[in-house]
Amino acid sequence: xxDAFSLPIGPGDGSLSSHAGGCGKCENCSCDxxxxxxxxxxxxxxxxxxxxxEQPASNNxxxxxxxxxxxxxxxxxxxxxxxxxxxxxxxxxxxRRVVAYVxxxxxxxxxxxxxxxxxxxxxxxxxxxxxxxxxxxxxxxTLILAFGMLSVFxxxxxxxxxxxxxxxxxxxxxxxxxxFLFRPIDRLFEGTVGKGGKPKAGMGGLRAVARIAVxxxxxxxxxxxxxxxxxxxxxxxxxxxxxPLEHPSAFLVMAAVTGLMLFDFLIFREQLCLIAxxxxxxxxxxxxxxxxIVAYDxxxxxxxxxxxxxxxxxAGDCVDCNQCVVVCPTGIDIRDGLQMxxxxxxxxxxxxxxxxxxxxLPAGLIRYSSQDEIARKPKKLFRARTIVYxxxxxxxxxxxxxxxxxxxxxxxxxxxxxxxxxxxxxxxSVNNSFKLRLVNRTQQDQNYTxxxxxxxGVTLEVIQQExxxxxxxxxxxxxxxxxxxxxxxxxKGNTQAxxxxxxxxxxxxxxxxxxxxxx
Length: 519
What we know:
- This protein has 4 domains: 3-64, no CATH class; 91-283, no CATH class; 290-374, no CATH class; 410-516, Sandwich (Immunoglobulin-like).
- It contains 17 helices and 17 strands.
- It has helices spanning 17-21, 38-51, 59-64, 91-109, 142-163, 166-171, 173-190, 206-231, 233-241, 248-268, 271-276, 279-286, 298-301, 323-326, 347-359, 371-374, 384-405; strands at 114-115, 118-119, 121-124, 129-132, 135-137, 293-296, 366-369, 410-416, 423-424, 430-440, 446-447, 449-454, 459-462, 469-470, 475-484, 494-502, 508-516.
- β4 (129-132) and β5 (135-137) form a beta hairpin.
- InterPro entries: 4Fe4S_Fe-S-bd, 4Fe4S_Fe_S_CS, Cyt_c_oxidase_cbb3_FixG, Electron_Trans/Redox, FixG_C, Ig-like_fold.
- Pfam families: Fer4_18, Fer4_5, FixG_C.
């Protein structure tokens, strides 16, 4: 590459060049081999120059040379780079393993746990009901659902601002199942239990078939667990007991979910975090310089030097062993700085601490830190995000609590009927047609009564009286007819009226509306 396109970038400056663009040993290096020494590198480059003295480097060729990895899961030619990370069983990994096993039990148990006879969480899309902690909400609970969603979103933003991507590395189901269920199965069938990495030779054939069979069984179980969050355990148990021919739609849904999970954990894997999940892209907005991240300390680690520390010139603590890269489940080099692909799994911390212990250097070259802490700036416990976000969250949760506490057992809305605004009967009375939307928000059968409070002389007729008896969650449209004398609207064409709706629990809802008639 000519000097016009040379960048004076060395290892540890936070760029991607030392990982993807060259060895970082020389100013104009474009070699991708990170394993050679400084001297070997010069010998390699000068030998190339001597072999072709009449072929000057082309700027265009240099510009078109692809990076080593456009994505950590793609090779230069665009083919898939399959990651088989090694395993570092350090202190952080042991903590994550305990958390992961507990979460696996929790994820499976939640659909089966009940409060007051109702599931802790049930997102019934067919019936359009959301049950949380034994409380059922309906699409008409607009304010409650809005406050609830805002509370969840602001909580995520606050946790990310304080603890970084702790959710991704510690609690996300994708990470929990991938790293502590499916990768251990890979290592079992590939002969790399307890260490990971490339499979041993001769581990194909029947072992590969058995591995896929285990994947299918586990994905079927996880698919049923996942569906239990949306259809409930009772309905799911009924599906399991019956023949697929008796519920083909439900069976196809279960088969589709199983297939998607099999594709995810067997093929797509870490690419779900890198490509499909938007959370990594949102972190640039949600993080600040004081947020906790897994970070490499370049002040302490640079310049890197392999083996014994050279005496002629100072060297940093990083021995350039590359262990932080080979254990990373997303295939990145943590020494390149904060990256979207980092899920804060702490594997690089364990690997680096293990190497530091072997070479007699202090642990913590890679650690939980923040960008300001790495830059040797003071910590700030109180800052804009940690003050504003909790205030907003408190206000939103207060609104949510008020909306829940003021929620009545039913919803009633009066709609004017189609056609003419009013009609004159054979007796000379004026008739208005309406429809009453009734929603039973309770978990008991309810009977409702309707009366006209004001004005006097107005007669109410329910066209289908049986519609005023609703099951739990029932939603009906009740046709109504209102009759009155023309004198009520004489001179102005309308007058104000009040419809009173009562249920069996003494809840009352008043609806003000206008009745129309001749002037």
